[in-house]
Amino acid sequence: MRELLLCPPDHYGIEYEINPWMSRARGAEAVVAKSQWQGLHKTLVSLGAKIDLIPPQPKLPDMVFTANAGLTVGRKFIPSNFRHQERAGEAPYFARWMESRGYDVLWLPENLYFEGEGDALFGGDALFCGYKFRSDIQSHRAVADMLRCLVISIELVDPRFYHLDTCFCPLPDGSAVWFPAAFDEYGQRAIRGHISDLIDVEEEEAKTFCCNAVVLGQDIVIPEGAPNLVRTLESRDYRCHQLPMSEFLKAGGACKCLMMFLPQREEVSG
Amino acid sequence: MFSETIELRGHIIDSLILPKVLDEILSRGANFKMLEVKIGERRADQSFARIEVSAPTSDALSDLILRLRQHGAEVEEKGDAQLAAAPADGIFPADFFVTTNQQTFIRIGGEEYEVRPAMMDSGIAFDRAKKQARTVRFADLRKGTEIVVGHQGVRIVPVQRVTERTDVFQFLNSMLSAERPKGAVIREIAREFEAARKTEQKVLVVAGASIIHTGAAEYLEQLINWGYIKLLFGGNAMAVYDIESTLFGTALGVNLEHAALTDSGHENHMRAINVVRSAGSIAGLVKRGTLTRGIMHACVIRGVEFLLTGSIRDDGPLPEVITDSVEAQRIMREKIDGVTLALLLGTMLHSFAVANLLPASVKTLVVDINPSAVAKLTDQQTFQALGLVTDIEPFLRELVHCLHELRAK
């Protein structure tokens, strides 16, 4: 059974603008957001996941996006160093919570930005890490040292897809869903070099954040609005669970951003 | 070129960060030199690369480094050059940096400054107000001038040895002994001269008196008249014998036609000197219509700059001769600026004096009958020097012949 960390959207709202999706003029509907989050929670429970909830904190509206709490591998937890001051306040809450659950908290040097699972996803034995908009490539090196694993650093070039989990989604059969134009030429080549079976997403569907999906074995919890990708995945025997995510898209997040795996991997091979 | 050393660490091979950084360097018109690469042995091992990045301007380099930092490049910290004030006129501070003839940069306040001109056996003065680094020699050094001491913060860029043959200088970089055929090489040199003339390069000739004795003056005169030479350095004797031969047909009394001493020939060079002195200058003698041909005549008529310097054994000397050797050296340094090709002909000490002042980037051709003179000079200008051990007359005759053929085409 997979264990996941979520944070209820009690204090969620668009209170600042730190990515192209956010606009304070276009606020999130609190009631709708709550119902969409509950829909996600219910779906994940129905798929057999064990859900842990961290208490939400006032004035930290993005704490709901727990993917950015950090990265968990085995009993090790590497907390995020947020690039934006608006989110930096979340880090101590996540770290204390993980520590209270017995995780070994490994802090990165303060000067290295790293935004956790949002920019760090395992595909096969390699940890794919995005850099430039939020995480620094220098943090990848430190993560690789801490985990003793191969880290593939990929530059993100489209500000709309500012975290790796917004444009790249590894699947358990060794393949991955991706939106190629979110990466530079070298990043594309590096991904192709390690993942031979790639499912391209067209721009119209990428904008619905369909890559921001939660993969639990053959079940994929995916924001609605990407019928072509859903068809492709279903033809590969995946079961897609499409959920409305409109209120979280206003902040540049969707299904995957709203959860963090505990852990993402039990162990890694060096 | 301005340069920084960067370091890349991590899974830079699997992530294609290393090729990306190298491509970025080249695509922005900069260049790199791999100083060190360590590839991780196991999958999880990180790799390491130390790369020297150079760009044509300081701004271009900073822009590039800024981009490379985004890809994880870390800039190796470099120390500033250390400065100390000259304790008195003509005295360098202890441990002053002694220059080579290679392109040199110093780092002050994190910025690099090129030391100009590139000249060996000098110190480096830094002017904080003008932000300029210049080579300075004993005679020009003033008390209090800030001088680079020690080696920190000084970077020397050697002239690159090329692996492909691009011209005769870079191909040979050496000396051709008396036993070797020279025709093909002289043809190549002629092509260099022709190319230099067409692109209006500054060609310097340092001429020894043996040019006149061996009867080669007419060929040098021809080169000047054809516009190949822009600057001539010589001693008092070279000019005196050139004028003597024009006025009397002898050089130090030896008839150049019959190669025999003429009656009272030993007087001729003294009379020649006297005529010039009474005319006030060589140009004055040309103006009077007394001097009608020869090397010095050609220089005056063609407006080719010449500098005559004296030595202990000189007779006269001629009015133009600079007898203060420190002053002569200073003027030579000024005039050498911009020279791209230097021809050192049959004068060992004068050639050494000039070679000491030339940057390593100047193509240098040494022609002398004395193998040890050629060897010493080509050793000094290691990178683009070509030495020919031969009598000067056949060399210049052949060069003029080749140029004549080239010009006829």
Structure description:
The complex is a heterodimer of chains A (270) and B (409). By secondary structure, chain A is α/β, with parallel strands linked by helices. Chain A has one domain: L-arginine/glycine Amidinotransferase, Chain A (5-stranded Propeller), CATH 3.75.10.10. A three-stranded mixed beta sheet of chain A has the order 2-1-15, with helices on one face. In chain A, a hairpin with a 5-residue loop joins β9 and β10. Chain A starts with a strand and ends in a 9-residue tail after the last strand. The model of chain A has no long low-confidence stretch (mean pLDDT 96). Chain B is α/β, with parallel strands linked by helices. Chain B folds into three domains: 70 residues, LOR/SDH bifunctional enzyme, conserved domain (Alpha-Beta Plaits, 2-Layer Sandwich); 76 residues, conserved putative lor/sdh protein from methanococcus maripaludis s2 fold (Beta Barrel), CATH 2.40.420.10; 241 residues, Rossmann fold (3-Layer(aba) Sandwich), CATH 3.40.50. Chain B is built from 14 helices and 21 strands. The longest helix of chain B is centred in the C-terminal third of the chain and has 17 residues.
CATH topology group of chain A: L-arginine/glycine Amidinotransferase, Chain A
Based on secondary structure, the structural category of chain A is: alpha/beta
The main β sheet of chain A shows up as: 3 strands, mixed
CATH fold node name of the largest domain in chain B:
Rossmann fold
Figure out the total of helices of chain B: 14
What is the CATH architecture descriptor of chain A?
5-stranded Propeller
Biggest sheet, spatial arrangement of strands of chain B: 12-21-20-19-13-14-18
CATH architecture of the largest domain in chain B: 3-Layer(aba) Sandwich
